[in-house]
Structure formats: C-alpha cells, structure tokens
Predict the structure.
Amino acid sequence: MRNVAEIYKREIRFYFTTPVAYVVMIIFTAVFGFIFVRNLTFYSQLSWQLMQNPSYGQRIDLIMGVFSPAFSSNALIFLMVIPPISMRLFAEEKKSGTIELLFTYPLKDVQIVIGKWLAATSIVFLMLLLTVPAPLMAFGFAKSAEWGPVLAGYLGMFLMGLSFLSLGVLISALSENQIVAIIVSYGALLGFWFLGWAVDKNSGQQVGKVLNELSVIEHLNNFIQGLIDTRDIAYYVLFIFTTVFLTLRVLESKRWRG
Amino acid sequence: MIKIEKMTKMYGMRAVVKNISFEVQKGEILGFLGPNGAGKTTTMRIITGYFPPTDGEAFVAGYSVIEQPLEVKKRVGYVPENPAMYTDMRVNDYLRFIGAVKGLPKPRIGERLEKTVGQCALESVYTRRIGELSKGYRQRVALGQALINDPPVLVLDEPTSGLDPKQIHEIRELIKSMAGERTIILSTHILPEVSMTCGKVVIINEGEIIAVDSTDNLGHKFTESHRIELKAAGNPSKITDMLKKIDGVKGVDGGAGAAVSAAGFTIEVEKDKDIRAEVARRIVEGGFDLLELRYKSMSLEDVFLRLVTEEEGER
C-alpha cells in the first residue's frame, strides 16, 4: 500500500511541477465552459420563445436541453486531453531509462501500474471537479435543482474518462516514444468511437448490435440522460480492468525478453 | 553472499550469458571484467532482480532471484551504467522517495538520508534538481540511491565511465572505503581499476567465464616470464649481445637505432629468475653507463588480452 502511495505521490508531483496538469486542465475547462455557456444561452432563448406556446414548453428541460449536449461533447474534449496525460506514464520512463532502476526496487509491477494509474485518474477527477461550477450556475438561474441526472452524467463521464486513460496507459507501456504513444492513443480511441457507426444498429444485423455494444461512446448515452444502467457500468469497468491487466502483462513480457 | 549457478540468459535465440557459475563472499569486492558486449550488464541485471535468467539460478543472501525477487531487491543497491534518474526531482526529494520505495521505515529515512548524503558528498547539491547536475554529481546521486537503504550488496556497472580523472579517483576511494562491510560487484573494461579496487576478478568474454581468481594470483598464474626494463648508454648492439649471454634471458628488445647516449631495452626473463644484480654488474663491467633498471611483472592488462585472444584463437 505504501509503495503504491509513493509511486502515486511521485507521479502527482511530476504532473504539478511540470506544466502538464495545468495545460490540460485549463484547456479542458475553457472548452467545456464555452460549450456549456453556449448551450445555456441557446436554451434560455429557446425557452423564452416557447413561453409563447405553453404546450411546447413541457417538452424541454435543463437536462435534455443543456446538460446532455454539453456532456456529450465532453466525450470529444476528453478524447483530446486524456492521451496527453497518459502518454508519458511508461513511455517516458522507458525512453529516459529510469525504468531500469524502477524495476530493481522492491516493488511489484502491479504496485507501479496502480500507482501511476491512480495519479492519472486523479487528474481526470480534478478536471471534472473543475466543471462543477457549471451546473451550480445553471441551477442557480433555473431556481430549481435536479442533481440526480447530473450526477449520473458525471459518473458516466468519469468512467468514460478512465476508459480512455487506461487504454492510453496500455499504449504507453507498449511504446517508448511519447509522440507515437499519443498518436496511437488517438487512433485507438477514435477506433473505439467509430465502432458503433461501422454498421447501423437498426439494420437488424447482429454484427451491428455487437459493434455498437463495444463502442466506448455509446455507453455514455444512458448516463448523460440521467439513466444508470448496470450494463454500461459493467462495460466501462471491464474495459478499464482489461486494459490495466494487459498493461501488467506487457510490462512483464518486456522484462522477460530483456 | 552472491552465488551464480549455471546461469544462462537468452535474448531471443541469442545466448548473451552462457552457463556461468561463480560466487562472491561477504565483504569481497569482485571485479567483473570483459570487453564491451561480453555479458557483464546482463549478469548484473539478473543479480539485481531486474529480469530472471533463462536457465540456472542466482542467489543473493540466500534468496533466489527467480523465487523471491523482492527479497533480493531489498538487499541489492544498483548503479547502472549511465544511470537515468528522475531529472525533475531535487536530490533530497529523490533520495527520500527511493528510501520510501525501498521500504525504509519513515522514522529512519531522515537518518539514512543524512548518512548517505555525507558518504556521497552531496551536501552542496542537496536541493538542486538532478537534471541540472554535472555528470560527476549525478554519478554520486546514483550511488546515493543505491546506498540509501544500507543494502549489504552493491552492484556497480562501470561506475567510473565518463568521469574526469579526479572524479574517478573519488568514486574509487568511496568504493574501496566500503570494502569489508558490503559485498560489491563492479564491472569495468578498464583494467587498472580492477587491480586498484578489487580483491577478486571474474573475466568474462562472449558470455563465458574464462578466469576467476584473486587479482594478485591472476597476474602470477599466467606469468611464464617477467621483464626488466633497462636504460643504458653505450653501443646498443654490443649491449644487446652482452645481455643475451646472461643465463635466464629469453630475449632482448629495443636498443636498435637508438641514440648512443641512452638506449632503452626490454629484457624478457624466465619465470622465477632474478637477474637484476647480474645485469647491472655486466653493464658496468662492460664499460657502459647504467641509467635505469626496473623490474616489471605482467600486468592484468597483459593477462586479459592474452586470455581473450587465446579464447578467440581456439575457435
């Protein structure tokens, strides 16, 4: 436990003594903030117009009108800002050679992987925490608060963020070049994204359904509409577990081969 | 303290270390000698628990590197060749971090840090970032991270490569000062380093051990002759002829073409024969001037070259 904590502390210190964490968090909150505020103003104009016709007014709400689209576009921002967090975790240590000493310390591989993974996870958590003023502001204007669906959306975004991150960590363990690691991460994440589009899920073909279920983005849809489905949670948890497990295997096999 | 048994390491289909065995006793400094690419680093990495051998076994303090790598790692301090450390960290933070990672209990870290910093003379760079340090200081920080948890075994991979002569001297003194209390394996391809710091030598070439012995013995064992270096003034060819007549002389080199005022000769003499007095007398009696007379035993360098080339000749 102490070993995990030490690795964790060292990685966190790295993120905050170098510009990495700040740059990523600033870009993320700026883009998210812009999209959110734009959605909110559009929604308020729309609701003014709909006030003329009360029967339409019942069809819209803050969740569907503001949070869902903002959270949904958040997937794209995550796709851009998470690989820069994950790319260095192993690639840098391999390139600079620090991994040689790390592997001669009395640490288990799993402690190293978990320590690093938790540090990067904390950055993702912090990024989401920085967006909390957005719903506070929106609910402040609306004078009513519906936190349940928003929290569900946050849970979904967090799980999706960790999935992106874990895939990035795996790729970082495979490469010793950070540029290669980040580009491959983008490619792999886009691949998991497009899986759902490869075949129309309503075409009746079984393969369409399967690919759709595998898509890392599709499983966010329920969350951002305020729905927590165990199938979606299971998907993300399994995705994270598998990639972290593969990371361990990769490190082990690289070491055996020398 | 360290025991290597029939150990082999393959990289793919290529055997880098082939069935080697040797032992290091507690408190010994072992010189691990061989040309570049001989398998020194690979052997050392196995001893540190970095990776397991393909075949055979290695034990450190009785623990197997395959079965109990964590116990081995707790007892070995390792300084790789060109040690890479976290350049973004300050020296004190870095050593603290390594101490914690190596399992030092929190209350002991401060005390060990102080000792290590003193031992490696790091006081003046205590709060500097490792990335800003010179090569010599980095080497000392690397030694510091190896020593921080007071391990009984030290593995040093070419600890003096790339340092300036003063730094080399300092590092060697530091290593020598630890003899007796720690078991040290030191790899190098610089031969004088071995005779200066090590009590025992393992010579390795192309993954195979070709000699294991004490540093002094190795010199003696492979010496079939020794040499006398002589400087004398007079007719060089006459001196050469005269020297060749002395009993025990196997050959005389040099002298030819040199100035009459002072010619240098190398006399090869049979093993166990001391003819220095005889040479001096003859020179003076022959009417020449004796300027310098020096006995020279076969250096480790000669032994090494001879072993490595003999080995290659057999193939």
